[in-house]
Specification:
Layout lengths: L3 E2 L33 H7 L16 H11 L4 E6 L4 E4 L1 H7 L3 H4 L4 H7 L7 H8 L1 E10 L2 E13 L5 E10 L1 H9 L15 H11 L6 E9 L1 H8 L1 H18 L5 E6 L2 E7 L5 H13 L2 E6 L2 E14 L9 H14 L5 E3 L2 H22 L3 E10 L4 E13 L3 E3 L1 H10 L3 H19 L9 E6 L1 H5 L3 H11 L7 E6 L7 H13 L3 E7 L6 H6 L4 E4 L1 H4 L5 H16 L3 E4 L5 H9 L4 E2 L8 E2 H10 L1
Parallel strand pairs: 1-11, 11-12, 14-16, 16-17, 17-18, 18-19, 19-20, 20-21
Antiparallel strand pairs: 2-3, 2-6, 4-5, 5-6, 7-9, 7-11, 8-9, 10-11, 13-14, 13-21, 13-22, 14-15
Helix pairs in contact: 9-10, 13-14, 15-17
Amino acid sequence: MKRKIAEIKPISTNNTTDLGFSSINPQQSGWDETINENNSLIKNDINMSKVDQKVDFESCDIDTLMDDIESKKNTKMVVRFNSAGIIDYASTKVLGIINLAKEDFIGKNINDFNSTLMIHNGTWYEDLKHDFHAQSLTETFIGNEKRWLLWDFEAIINSVASIDAVVATGHEITDFINQRTNSIQNKHKDYLTGLWNRQGLHEQLNLMENKIDQAVAFFIDCWSFSKIIDYYGHHVSDEVILLLGNELQKLNREVSLISRYSESQFVIVCINEFAHPNRIEKMLESLEKNLVSMYTIRDMNFQIDKRIGYSLYPNDTNDLSKLISFSSLAMKESIKLDQISVKRYQKYMSEILEQNVLYAQKLQNAINNNYIEVYFQKIINVVTNEVHSFEELARWNDPELGNVSPKTMFTIAKEANIIDKLEKYLVEKAIIAIKQVNQIWEYRHAKLALNITPASLLDPHFLAYLDGIVEEHDMTSDAISIEISESTFVNSIDLCVERINDFKQHGYSISIDDFGREYSSLAILEDVAFDIIKIDAVFINKIKQPKNQEIVKMIYKIAKFANQLIVAEGVETVYQRDILKRLGCIIQQGYFFNRPEKISAILDRAYDL
């Protein structure tokens, strides 16, 4: 049978009911390097009974089915949820385990179920809505004895492919888990693949340090692996990881150490005779042949692209503890260059890292000491000559580094994991500044055009923070326009649209910034509830060309149809101003009108007059 290649995209859930889950906020816990998500191994090693999925539910009463299950297997652990996510059936075995009377358990919801049975993987119902089946492994106590239970969740589907109910069936697999746990040396090996984990790898290198004369480390990153997890769940991604691990072990069975270093990253370390130049050359050939691999899971093919870096000891470093980190730097260079390749570590990579660390420290210091300033640039209505709004821009002038570009500043903040702190710092300074500027009669109606990064847009907590700052400084949300770069939509457009709608519900208007520069798509204009389109300067610079004039006309017609505004960015000449005005674009911004300036300059000029 010919297999289909699975597209990495979300699976539509439009044909399922919500099961009431949207109103439930279960506790979620990460199970890093535990046996929690070991679904594929359990499936392969244990013959587990399930509720029969082939029952004709249209001709069989569900309650009768549940009673039948109970009568046939009075030791069966069975719980049923109705379409609202409420427990309406629990077997005697389950009630005995949790030591609750029937009336104390029936009527509980998903969150209560997870809590009572100590199911820490609270996201199983998301997999259920995608695949109509999910699993979760839990550690619990029956009496004073620790036991392992595997829960199978099966959706009961009606004739229109909607979920009528969910049946949870528990299986005790304590013996299996104990056998597998005993086969793994403490916490030094990965629970899924049996390879060394990060801790185990470093401990092995420490034990062998005095015996190592030469070594090579290969750092392998499985690119975009997280999308498989997001769209297909851990039960599929675990199977991919197993195949990846097997593939790496087959590349060269004589390698010294292989590690699953993190969720989707592997490290291979070849030592002494296995790190001879001839052996390294053969390993490189094998890795290069497998940079792109196809893995078949459940009649679907998943393509995994790998980014690989490597470093040599003692050639690249005489400090064995740095060998793996140097190979990681080489791998990251491959990612930066967007190359599916094997990259050798070079000294400049460490120098760049050291420079980034220094920049990050200076940026942190600049935030803490208010060295980063907010500048404003006017956005003008060329018909009335009034200031429609002020765009907030960040400027960092470091005593040693000099003027650091905004792009560099935000890149540093992102890599140093302080982007959230920088964003909040700028938001508050901008709101304080616009309050001062609005005191000037000429600018009393001017709005604040507030730039936010994709990270802040997608951060579920940022909107609440913004609301709090707006309220604290006695502003209203309708005085603020949120400027979102068009490149934001390279992220999940559905999630972006959801977040944008949240902002609009709170009263903020939305501007699509830099439209036409990178991710141009009319689908954005159709899907996103925007209020303003800001046409990128790349079109304005060449506005003399008839093609670009037609583009501006088209965008103007789309905006006018939806009662939205367009703003021309990068206006620098009288000609540009006038032709844009004739084309219907009367809100303009650029050096022709003014350059970005400090708030103090705006205030001083106004009050001097």
